[in-house]
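QA checklist item 7 of 12: single-chain prediction sanity check.
[x] sequence parsed
[x] length recorded as 253
[x] structure emitted
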Amino acid sequence: MFRKLLVFLLPLIPSVAAAQMPPGSPYVGMAGGVNLAGSPLSYDGHVQFDTDAGGLGLAALGWAFGNGFRVELEGSYRSNGISNIDTLRVNGRRQPIGLLQNSAPGLNTWAAMVNGAYDIPLANFGLAWPFQPYIGAGVGFAWVDPSDASGVEPAIIHLPDNNTYTGPAAISYGSASAFAYQAIAGASLPISLLPGLEATLEYRFFGTTEANLEDTAVALTTNTINGAIPSGTNHHGTALNDNSVLLGLRYRF
């Protein structure tokens, strides 16, 4: 079976090579796929977001130098549903808070990246495959937003004048920015129907430094302390470590 596949593909290799655009040219690309965000845990161990598999979309504008190296600007958006938010309790263990029934919490990340990539020269290894493997890496900034992530948990809120509220509270989470980085491994395959057009398949690891996410606790009580409903805020540095697989298209001008 493998030999039959080679017999079929080998005659196509010259036409595939002829379909590739000359080196040293600008290009645009877009891709989408599956994103796995795992369970990001804050560095202080107080908050953990349990996420579902989600999606990723990106667009890029780049330049190929003609020697295998490329550089590009990229914008991306990742979104994963949040199935649980686990918080550290007084017994020293993290436990799920009660997510609000009317909320649809999600972990959303927008990123702007500068990437460098290298097209591995297969011809130098005596290979004449119809696809072009490449590797790359990028740095930039990300905006992390646990959108609509809210729930109810037992809380201890420390207030001015040595007042303390202990009881149920509504918890909500804010967004924050962080430094972002990524590693890329993929392959492109020219589409002979349109010279310059390529299909791409990629794996990406995407990470951030600590995004200083704020949580706000508001007491679920009609009683006031110092004339206000008890409330308080905390900050929890949380880093992302996402894995994703993408399919895309790239067009070289």
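[x] summary fact logged: The longest helix spans residues 2-9.
[ ] second reviewer sign-off
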